[in-house]
Specification:
Elements: E1 7-11, H1 20-32, E2 36-41, H2 47-57, E3 61-65, H3 73-91, E4 95-99, H4 104-112, E5 117-118
Parallel strand pairs: 1-2, 2-3, 3-4, 4-5
Helix pairs in contact: 2-3
């Protein structure tokens, strides 16, 4: 397997904001060897820190989980955050993956925001026995 086909993914949360220089050094080391970098965000209550992480660490891929959207009233808030995230990821020529899509409302968000990649049980084939 060639290194340019490998994406190293790490979960990021607010704790990591204190370690950007160290993360950047590590990511630069992997990039110099041809690896791609992915950041996974499972929650983003402070979307400004998430946008800052994307800007400073410039990953090739950003994975956003829909798990934080438990109720319909959260969809509008999630949609606004996703729009800002998509703009930031596009600015660094990255790709965004929306994960854990379980229904039509999340699929609609992915389509409306032109998300690059999707993953979730909504797309899994049903087993016919």
């Amino acid at each position: 397997m060639q290194t340019h086909n490998v994406v190293l993914v790490t979960g990021i949360n607010t704790y990591f904001s204190h370690y950007y220089p160290e993360l950047q050094t590590g990511f630069d080391n992997y990039r110099s060897r041809g690896y791609q970098i992915g950041l996974r965000f499972n929650a983003f209550n402070k979307s400004s820190q998430l946008l800052d992480s994307i800007h400073k660490l410039a990953p090739n891929f950003v994975c956003i989980s829909t798990d934080t959207v438990a109720e319909k009233q959260n969809i509008a808030d999630f949609s606004a955050k996703l729009q800002a995230i998509k703009a930031r990821v596009d600015a660094i020529n990255g790709l965004i993956l929306l994960s854990n899509i379980r229904g039509e409302s999340m699929e609609k968000l992915a389509i409306d925001h032109a998300v690059d990649l999707v993953e979730g049980s909504y797309y899994q084939p049903f087993s016919v026995d």
